[in-house]
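Assemble and predict.
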Amino acid sequence: AAGVIQSPRHLIKEKRETATLKCYPIPRHDTVYWYQQGPGQDPQFLISFYEKMQSDKGSIPDRFSAQQFSDYHSELNMSSLELGDSALYFCASSGERASTDTQYFGPGTRLTVL
Amino acid sequence: SQQGEEDPQALSIQEGENATMNCSYKTSINNLQWYRQNSGRGLVHLILIRSNEREKHSGRLRVTLDTSKKSSSLLITASRAADTASYFCATGYNYGQNFVFGPGTRLSVLP
């Protein structure tokens, strides 16, 4: 079965650079979530989208923005990168709200900021 | 934030033994899910239990939910070395909303 796809899998950036992470949800899933997991930490919710509209916002810095496109894929844009942004970034998707609430996670993008 | 908390934070057992991990949360939930994460890898969904359910089974996994105590437990029976991973509980409050993850339990199953 198709899973959540994230790209790139690994990314190395310098401080103050920008990065764009992409997420392709499971087909027919309409909700996308972004989480950040620092070293040794539990995942922290950043932001979510339902039907291309932002549905919830967590601890996402103002330097980050995200959107969901008409094909339901989502991109997380990160600017003015800081060392503390080094983390695993997970995207998850879920199906139509009335049917299932399980979030299926992608493999993650490991971002390293030097 | 309404964060789940897991205990123990680390657990070491021998292959073949059972492993029990607990999770507590602070407010009413719609559902609770358990995920497994191998070191630095993605989160794998294990099982979902809804607030109106008390127990669910999936293979060697058994999850219980006690909404009066705001707690859940994950039991892995007949553990294997391949079960070595971190296990997170995640609580959901409304359909389509984000999960709140607990700090996770690091399980080591020794051969």
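The two ends of chain A are 36 Å apart (CA to CA).
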